[in-house]
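Record 1 of the preview.
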Amino acid sequence: MSAWSGDPLPVSDLKKATPLVRQGAAVFQAKQCRNCHSIGGSGGERGPALDTVATRLTIDQLRFKVVTGGGNMPAYGKNLSPSEIEALVSFLQTLHPANEPPAYDAARRAVETSQAQPGSAPAARPSPAAANP
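->
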């Protein structure tokens, strides 16, 4: 496979995907990410293979990498709309082995868990007037 392969993603990989993930796969293909990155052994070799990218990078790290680039990867923050970025990141989050969950930010998970529990409303902040009588 050459470093400039634009092979399409297999349709079978997207049959059970959500509409957002399918949109992200379309962005991945349309923006020619496969020219540099491979999935399933097909695609470019200039950038890293993305088969397990979701186990290495959290959703926030994926978003940051797409927007700002780094190393050999160009920044796409000005070339993608916010909705395209979110769709692409949603697609990238699916790229992990079936028996291994995606990477996560422990602090974010703790906040989300505490907010989801009944009766765990955040503590009320004192009003500025109450703090300065």
